[in-house]
Amino acid sequence: MEVKDSIRARRSIRKYRSKSIPREALEELLEAARLAPSSSNLQAWNIVVVTDKATKNTLVPASGNQGFVGECSAYLVGVAEADYNAIDIAIALDHISLRAVELGLGTCWIGDFDPQMTKKILGIPDNLKVHICMTLGYPAQSPPARKRKQMDELFFRDKWSAKWK
Q1: Cβ contact 68:102 at 8 Å
Q2: CA distance linking residue 115 with residue 90, whole number of Å
Q3: Of 102, 48, 98, which is closest to residue 77 (Cα–Cα)?
Q4: Alpha-carbon distance 67 to 58, whole Å?
């Protein structure tokens, strides 16, 4: 599968089959994240990979009561000290989301979560911040592609007043 195919096929999955991800597949995904670019190549981030069913269920209330957090195979929690490292975590998780498509897995970005509650549940040190979370697992649904804006609604050429045509 080419990257462009993964980009077109990626969907936000909110319903998962009850199936564990083999360790070698999980490590392939983590390797994709490890290879992601980061500011000054510092890789000043960490990802907590939660596969324990009880812990995932405990994270449901910390994740906006989104029940599928407890159903996924793995819940990924992106952690860093500085706010500017949030971009690096997003790039790393995006690498995971695209590689996941190639491996027959699905993901969903979780923006609605309580960082302090998540930190407490996972024992994350006080000096670190939870920036973003993501579910990962075997899809139990195949949602259709959602409508996207046209190119000229999103991009400009050379200056703000010149719409992309």
Answers
A1: no
A2: 16
A3: 48
A4: 11
Kindly list the structural domains of the chain, giving each domain's residue range(s) and its CATH number in brackets, ordered by start: 3-154 (3.40.109.10)
β-partners of residue 108 are 135
**CB burial class (10 A; 0-12, 13-18, 19+) of residue 42?**
exposed
In order along its 165 residues, the chain shows pLDDT tens digits of 899 999 998 999 999 999 999 999 999 999 999 999 999 999 999 999 999 999 999 999 999 999 999 999 999 999 999 999 999 999 999 999 999 999 999 999 999 999 999 999 999 999 999 999 999 999 999 999 999 999 999 999 999 999 998
Please say whether the dihedral angle defined by the alpha carbons of residues 120, 108, 94 and 53, taken in this order, is positive or negative.
positive
Q: Could you give the CA distance from residue 161 to residue 126 in angstroms, rounded to a whole number?
A: 45
